[in-house]
Amino acid sequence: MTATRPDPAGESFAELLGGRRAALDATLGPLAFGIAFVAGDRSLEWGVGAAIAVTVAIGVWRVLRGDKLSAVLLGLLGVVVAALIALYTNRPEAFFLIRIATNAASALAWALSIVLRWPLLGVVVGGVLGQRSSWRRDPALLRAYSRASWIWVMQYVVRLAVWLPLAWAGQTEALAFSFVALTWPVVAACLAVSWYVMRRSLPEGHPGLRHPVLDTAPAGV
Asked: Which regions span the lipid bilayer (predicted)?
């Protein structure tokens, strides 16, 4: 076992969180919107119709593979609400406003969680591993999760730096395809880099994220 390896089993954040698959699913709706919008001579109806159809198809496939119906319906609801906003305002770029808003909220939430010493990466991974909050009683893990969580803040900031000017300028085609470029590839990079930061942040000899070295004093907030 490598001394500074965060997990003795060799898992990565991508394997623990399923992040790449979820990010790939998230790109297909905007991609379908962009392709149909361009193919339909900038038809908003074609764009939203294609996005909903693709999302429904993905949802059916996920349910047949055993995924939770609630998660599938939540994803479909997001696309339907985005479509309704775009149709109501008659502004194609408005289709992306919900995702822009959720990225802004996510950047703020992740940054705030680090400041409050409840880094969201630790909350999520700890939940997946069934640790609840025991990881917070390990100073090394708490520090490593905090450092790695900044990588997640940066991914949201990078997206906003691109998407906000494009939305303001009404550049629907560029906005649609930038959603693809800045979703799956960025999430994949974020998972890899945050995993690397986690590995580098843990001290030599630490048993890994599955085995917190519990401190007797509770972590401060």
From this structure: 46-64, 71-88, 108-129, 150-168, 174-197
Token readout for 170 is: 């009404």
pLDDT in tens, 49-67: 999 999 899 888 888 887 7
Give pLDDT, residue 49. Answer: 94
Give the Å distances, CA to CA, from 201 to 77, 108, 140, 147, 205: 39, 23, 8, 8, 12
123 is in which domain, residue-wise?
13-201
> For residues 136 and 220, is the Cβ–Cβ distance under 8 A?
no
With beta carbons less than 8 A apart as the criterion, state whether 21 and 183 touch. no
Residue 7 lies in a domain: no
Establish if 6 belongs to a structural domain: no
Q: Which residue has the tokens 């908003």?
A: 44
For 21, residues 6+ apart whose C-beta sits below 8 A from its C-beta are none
- Residue 214 resides in a domain: no
Q: What is the pTM of this model?
A: 0.81
